[in-house]
Amino acid sequence: KLDTLTLHGLSWPAGGWRLNLTFCLGDKATEGNYYYFTNHHEPLRKKAEKKKTAIID
Fold first, then answer.
1. What is the pLDDT of residues 15-32, one digit of tens each?
2. Hey, how many other C-beta atoms are within 10 angstroms of the C-beta on 20?
3. b/e string for 24-51 if b means 16 or more Cβ within 10 A?
4. Mean pLDDT of the chain
5. Do 19 and 31 contact (CB within 8 A), yes or no?
6. Domain ranges of the chain
7. Residue 24: alpha-carbon gap to chain centroid
């Protein structure tokens, strides 16, 4: 599992947006989506930026 809020180099939207993410590694890929709401997710994203890894145990 990955914490998508730790991803760097993305332009995170302002307001509320449905995000569709695709992750690929070699011949493996997975997709996921969620609703990004700035007021809720921005504080979580700022906290997540301090993590050393996006991997969730």
1. 999 989 898 989 999 898
2. 8
3. eeeeeeeeeeeebeeeebeeebeeeeee
4. 87
5. no
6. 4-48
7. 14
Instruction: Report pTM.
Output: 0.66
55 close to 1: Cβ distance less than 8 angstroms = yes
Identity at 4, one-letter amino acid code: T
Tokens of 45: 């994203």
3-state SS, the chain, equals CECHHHCCCCCCCCCEEEEEEEEEECCEEEEEEEEEEHHHHHHHHHHHCCCCCCECC
pLDDT over 80 at 37, yes or no = yes
